[in-house]
Amino acid sequence: MRIDHLEARAILDTRKKPTLETTISANTFTATASVPSGKSTGSHEACELRDSDGSVASAIKNVNEEIAEAIIGKRFESLDELDSFLIELDGTPNKSRLGANAILSVSIAAMRLSAMLKDVPLWKAISERAGTKPQAPRLFVNVMNGGVHADFKLPFQEYMLVVEGKTSEALPIVQEIFAKLGERLGDVPMGDEGGYAPTFDTIEKPFEILTDLIKEYPSVSIAIDAAASELFHNGSYELLNKTYAPEELTSIYGSIVSQFPIHSIEDPFSENSGEDFAKLMAQLNSPSTRLGATTILVVGDDLTVTNPARIKTATENKELNAVLIKPNQIGTVKEAIEAVQATYAAGFQAIASHRSGETMDTFIADFAYGVGAHGIKAGGLGQKERLEKYKRLLEIEKEA
Ligand code: 2PG
Ligand code: MG
C-alpha cells in the first residue's frame, strides 16, 4: 500500500469531548476512522494525548505533520509493517509522544482502506489478518449505568444483559427487555453509555430487577463491569458509602453469583490486584461453590489493558478466564490482534469493547466478528453511537 493522503480533524464524542477523525487515501480510495475515549481508564493503558485545555490539537497536529510526512509516498508491504513503523516512529513504550489516539486513528483507517482495496468486508480482512475464525459475538448490552459513568448512583459501573445467539435474534430480545426496564424504572436519567442510571440503596436491587425481567428469556443472563479500580481507596473498596476489604468484596461476588444468573464479572478488583482476581477465579469456578453451574467469566480490563504482555502474565497466574479487548488501550490494530491471539493461546475468551466516549465509527463491530470474539460490549440502546455498532453487526450478518 502506498498512502497518498492523510488528514485528521476534531469531532465530538458522546460526552461532547473532542476526539480524532482521520482520513487516509490510496489509489483513489478513501477511508475514515475515528477513535473513542475512555473515562474509567487503566493506568497501564497507552497514552491518549490530550492538551491541557482538553482538546486533541497536538494529536491532530502529529497526524497531519509528523505522521503524514513519514508515511505519505512510502510503500508498506503489509498493515503490520505500517503499524510497526508507527510504533517505532513514536518511540515510547506507551505511545505518549505522538499519542495512542493519533496512532490508532491512522492504524484503523489504514485497515479499513486495505479492506476496500482488496474489496473484502472489513471483518473478513480482520479475520484474515488475525488468523481467526469469524463468529457472531454475543451482545453484552449495558442497560444500567453506575460508577463513574453515572455519578456512582449504582456501585458497579455496568449492568449488562448477555444474549446468546446471533445479533438478529438477540437484538429484538434486548429491545424488549430494555423497554420493560424503562417502564419499571420510570423517569430516570441516562448514563454515559446509553443505559438507565437509577439510584438504589442496596447492592442487590439492580440484580433483583434484571433477574425478574429476564426470567422468561432463557437465552439471557447478566454481566457486570465492577470497574473496581474506581472503587478502590487506601486498600479497600467503597460501595454505596460502605467500605469493604478485598475478601469481603469476594464474598459479595460469591453471594451475587449464588442468587442471580451471572455470566461474567469484569474488573472485580483494582488494576494492580491480580492476586485477588486469582482468588475469585478459584472460588467462583470451583465445583463446590457453584454446583452444576457453567463457568463464570472473570474478565480483565484495567488489569490487562489489551496489552499482550500483561495478558500473558494474567493468564499464567490464573487471574482471569476472559479478556476485554479495546484497541485504543494499546494504540494499533496490530497489537489489539496480538492481544486476542495471546488470549486465545491461553485458551480463554476475548470480549471486544467500545469505550464510554464513543463516535459513529463501527470498527469494533467488525473487529468482534472478525476475531470470533465471545462477546461485544457496545453500550446501551439510548445513544445513536451505540446503536450504530448493533446496526453494523446486523449488516455483517447479511454479508457473512
Ligand atoms: C469499561 C469501559 C467501556 P471506559 O470500563 O469497560 O464500557 O468504560 O471506556 O470509561 O473505560
Ligand atoms: Mg471495564
CATH class of the largest domain, named: Alpha Beta
Strand portion, in percent?
15-25%
Low-confidence stretches: none
One letter per element, helices H and strands E, the order comes to: EEEHHHHEEHHEEEEHEHEHEHHEHEH
Largest sheet: 8 strands, mixed, barrel
CATH superfamily of the largest domain: Enolase-like C-terminal domain
Radius of gyration: 20 Å
What is the annotated CATH architecture of the largest domain?
Answer: Alpha-Beta Barrel
Find the count of extended strands (DSSP E, 2+ residues).
14
Q: According to CATH, what is the topology of the largest domain?
A: TIM Barrel
> Which geometry do the CA atoms define?
globular
Give structural notes.
The protein is α/β, with parallel strands linked by helices and 400 residues long. The protein has helices at residues 57-71, 79-90, 100-118, 122-130, 167-185, 205-214, 246-259, 274-284, 308-316, 327-330, 333-345, 363-370, 384-399; strands at 5-12, 18-26, 29-34, 138-145, 158-163, 220-225, 232-233, 236-239, 242-244, 262-266, 297-300, 322-325, 349-353, 375-377. It has two domains: 5-119, Enolase-like, N-terminal domain (Enolase-like, domain 1); 130-399, TIM Barrel (Alpha-Beta Barrel). The protein is built from 13 helices and 14 strands. Strands 4-5-6-10-11-12-13-14 form an eight-stranded mixed β-barrel, surrounded by six helices. It has a three-stranded antiparallel sheet with strand order 1-2-3. A three-stranded antiparallel sheet has the order 7-8-9. Strand 8 (236-239) and strand 9 form a beta hairpin. Helix 4 crosses helix 12. The radius of gyration is 20 Å and the shape is globular. The two termini are 26 Å apart. The model has no long low-confidence stretch (mean pLDDT 96). Magnesium ion binds next to loops.
